[in-house]
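Researcher: I'd like a candidate sequence for this fold, 828 residues long. If you have to choose between options at a position, lean toward the conservative one.
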């Protein structure tokens, strides 16, 4: 497989070849024009940027479909096991650049657009993010979908086609304001509407016994309609399907009512039904226990299981074969209702014995836990489960009882205090349960699932997270990627551990100079962007210190801010002390209902305003809080970062994935021994990682110390000073008491031990100042991080799931000449 780039003669068509479909820029230009004309009905001279963007997307999608059909056909013919990834969230971001890069058509597209008098960057910038997720869990699902395709594993992703993704964040006088996200305002370019794939799903009602058989008499129904988005692999070798369900009314528009002038009532069924897939719940750590959320979880899970059984029964007639043909992954507990629903489909609807139905379902299902935070572990009131899903509540009781019979010594149940504990239910109904980093998996065994681990000692396994190198290195960091490919060839893109081959080149100055140049130019780009977008002038040679993630107390953005305030005061007191200039960059959304997190957002903005206005410290310290953090902003910030802030209270961050993206892009980590930080430090070497703070065990012990916060504040004047400034309203003169909630919490509770870890954090930051002053040494450490972080590829993670959990094989589309029989509907 080679991508042929001929010497560039002006206007000569650029050709790139993928497996038998030579695509020249001229072909692409014609295809773009054809779609603009016949799909969008626009004349070139009348077309807007977004018209051209959609036309280009359709032209690329055309080529993706061929690979898609070939992959589907190969999967069907091979009878191979399929993986089904059920997730409430897929934080996809943009798809145009990703598709171009994976099809190797970037140069051709660039040339075609230039021929049409257009600029590729303008077109790319026009695409809205598909923000169908909150944070880590959703983005992991998106990286996993791309890696499933790249390793050639036949798979479907199943989720919800929210009309409104994660809210847009705006700052009004430094406060977070949420606005509805409306990615569907513009025509979605990548999806195919599947009117022929729709399922009627029911809620409520009651269950009767009829001849010993339970019969569910639901009272409400809604239709789930499928929308498919092809997920293309690196080099277009394979393509899988992301199937997102949209809610529709069983009975549409009520004409009679309309004719009676009851206009709103006539539209009510439609509006009510669509509510289920209307909007993504913006919480990522606190379960709200809202009925609509449970409806959403059942809606997409039940539709997905129906679709999985429909596909299986189209190819097989022995239900007992199901576990060999379908591996169903539950992305956290959000689809955990899959356990009782699968039992209902096998037992109630297909007559399988109950115990066998439970065993068969368990053999298909596996569950990933992404958090140990008690408030994030879903517990549904039994009365709500009973009212909404009466038959499922019965089956949950049967499943729990069956587990009890088998485990007489057990001290655990899925039913407790009138609630259904979805973590325990998912564990009982899964043949494998995994954590997302080595530390997290061990903590699962010793804390939340200790009893279940005792009863099922071989059920919990670890699968440390990963990130896709196509989006997070090749696409986001062109300069670094070009250097890597020039040095070790292009194999690293789908075999990331090849990055280790870079290390022998660290000896020659040439390589490190180019490495440093890539970082320097990425930082210059970001500095220009900050100047234009944020009207913030920063020193592009300063240390770019970046903390980007959801705002949460356990992620300790407020500890970073306290250090920032203390540093500012130290610089102000002694500006000529030879400070390492720093730019502190924050970005992240707070869940709308999370008051403390929103106060942290407000405080960061108010501190930034004061510090950035200080002429004395301006040359040495600037603070920026970038609004509306999303996938696209992460792609812009990570390649320009020098320092990656991974400072969570040890034992709280299940893994982290931003930490991996930063390390791959040559940012050094300041972090605690938490989540995957532990494994990053092990692989890059402790000398190339700035560790600080208490371990998970020390955290538990410290929390037992009465007055631990006051003690720490007493012992550190800088901390005390920064807290006092906040408490006295130095950053909120218009409302001096505004942050008494924050300072009060930190001084008296400080559950996340911000105060007790502060001094160690401060000292680590000063070590970093010193290290950054020696740019050669710093760049060498940065390059080592890149070279030794290849293991954190999501390709490696997916291969782990395939081997240890799904027992699934990778397939290959048979050789050239077999691919492109377009037109034949091959989508199972
Ligand atoms: C019920 C509300 C809710 C919604 C989402 C609770 C919990 C969640 C997610 C599990 C939170 C989440 O995104 N967890 C993050 O998952 C990442 C992928 O595994 C990890 O890298 C992060 O450490 C973890 O916080």
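Model: Candidate sequence:
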């Amino acid at each position: 497989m080679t991508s042929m780039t001929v010497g560039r003669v002006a206007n000569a068509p650029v050709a790139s070849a993928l497996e038998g479909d030579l695509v020249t820029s001229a072909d692409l230009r014609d295809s773009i024009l054809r779609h603009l004309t016949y799909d969008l009905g626009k004349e070139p001279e009348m077309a807007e940027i977004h018209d051209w963007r959609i036309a280009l997307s359709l032209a690329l999608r055309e080529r993706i479909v061929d690979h898609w059909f070939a992959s589907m056909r190969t999967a069907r013919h091979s009878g191979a096991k399929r993986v089904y990834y059920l997730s409430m969230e897929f934080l996809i971001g943009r798809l145009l650049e990703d598709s171009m890069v994976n099809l190797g058509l970037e140069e051709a597209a660039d040339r075609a657009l230039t021929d049409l008098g257009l600029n590729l960057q303008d077109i790319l910038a026009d695409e809205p993010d598909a923000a169908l997720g909150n944070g880590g869990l959703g983005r992991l699902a998106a990286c996993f979908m791309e890696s499933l395709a790249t390793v050639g594993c036949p798979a479907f992703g199943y989720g919800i086609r929210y009309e409104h993704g994660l809210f847009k964040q705006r700052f009004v006088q430094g406060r977070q304001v949420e606005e509805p996200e409306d990615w569907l305002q513009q025509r979605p370019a990548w999806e195919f509407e599947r009117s022929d794939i729709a399922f009627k799903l029911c809620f409520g009602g009651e269950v009767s016994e009829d001849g010993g058989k339970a019969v569910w008499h639901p009272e409400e129904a809604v239709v789930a309609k499928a929308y498919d988005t092809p997920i293309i692999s690196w080099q277009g070798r394979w393509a899988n399907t992301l199937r997102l369900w949209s809610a529709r009314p069983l009975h549409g528009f009520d004409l009679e009512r309309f004719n009676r002038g009851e206009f709103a009532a006539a539209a009510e069924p439609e509006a009510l039904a669509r509510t289920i897939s209307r909007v993504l719940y913006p919480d990522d750590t606190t379960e709200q226990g809202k009925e609509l959320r449970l409806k959403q979880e059942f809606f997409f899970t039940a539709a997905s299981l129906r679709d999985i059984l429909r596909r299986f029964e189209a190819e097989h007639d022995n239900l007992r074969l199901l576990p060999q043909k379908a591996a169903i992954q539950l992305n956290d507990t959000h689809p955990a209702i899959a356990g009782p629903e699968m039992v209902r489909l096998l037992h109630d609807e297909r007559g399988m014995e109950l115990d066998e139905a439970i065993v068969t379902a368990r053999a298909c299902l596996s569950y990933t836990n992404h958090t140990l935070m008690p408030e994030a572990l879903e517990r549904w009131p039994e009365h709500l489960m009973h009212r909404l899903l009466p038959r499922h509540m019965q089956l949950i009781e049967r499943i729990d009882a069956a587990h009890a019979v088998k485990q007489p010594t057990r001290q655990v149940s899925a039913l407790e205090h009138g609630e259904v504990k979805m973590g325990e239910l998912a564990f009982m109904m899964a043949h494998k349960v995994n954590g997302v980093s080595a530390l997290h998996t061990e903590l699962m065994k010793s804390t939340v699932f200790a009893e279940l681990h005792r009863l099922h000692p071989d059920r919990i396994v670890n699968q440390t997270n990963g990130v896709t190198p196509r989006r997070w290195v090749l696409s986001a960091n062109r300069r670094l990627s070009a250097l890597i490919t020039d040095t070790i060839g292009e194999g690293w893109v789908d075999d990331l551990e090849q990055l280790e081959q870079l290390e022998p080149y660290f000896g020659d100055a040439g390589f490190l100079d180019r490495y440093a140049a890539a970082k320097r130019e990425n930082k210059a780009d970001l500095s220009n962007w900050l100047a234009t977008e944020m009207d913030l002038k920063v020193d592009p040679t300063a240390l770019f210190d970046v903390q980007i993630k959801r705002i949460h107390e356990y992620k300790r953005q407020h500890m970073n801010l306290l250090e920032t305030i203390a540093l500012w005061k130290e610089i102000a007191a002694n500006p000529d002390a030879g400070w390492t200039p720093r730019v502190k960059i924050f970005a992240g959304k707070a869940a709308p209902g999370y008051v403390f997190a929103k106060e942290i957002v407000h405080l960061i903005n108010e501190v930034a305003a004061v510090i950035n206005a200080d002429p004395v410290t301006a040359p040495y310290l600037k603070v920026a809080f970038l609004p509306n953090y999303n996938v696209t902003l992460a792609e812009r910030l990570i390649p320009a970062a020098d320092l990656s802030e991974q400072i969570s209270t040890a034992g709280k961050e299940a893994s982290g994935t931003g930490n991996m993206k930063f390390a791959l892009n040559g940012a050094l980590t300041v972090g605690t021994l938490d989540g995957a930080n532990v494994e990053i430090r092990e692989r890059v070497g402790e000398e190339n990682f700035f560790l600080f703070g208490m371990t998970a065990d020390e955290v538990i012990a410290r929390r037992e110390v009465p007055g631990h916060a006051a003690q720490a504040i007493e012992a550190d004047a800088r901390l005390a000073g920064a807290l006092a400034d906040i408490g006295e309203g130095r950053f909120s003169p218009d409302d001096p008491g505004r942050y008494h909630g924050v300072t009060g919490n930190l001084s008296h509770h400080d559950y996340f031990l911000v105060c007790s870890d502060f001094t160690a954090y401060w000292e680590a930051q000063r070590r970093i100042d010193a290290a950054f002053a020696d740019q050669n040494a710093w760049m060498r450490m940065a390059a080592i991080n890149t070279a030794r972080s290849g293991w954190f590829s999501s390709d490696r993670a997916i291969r782990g799931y395939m081997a240890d959990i799904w027992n699934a094989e990778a397939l290959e589309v048979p050789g050239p000449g077999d691919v492109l029989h377009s037109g034949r509907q091959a989508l199972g």
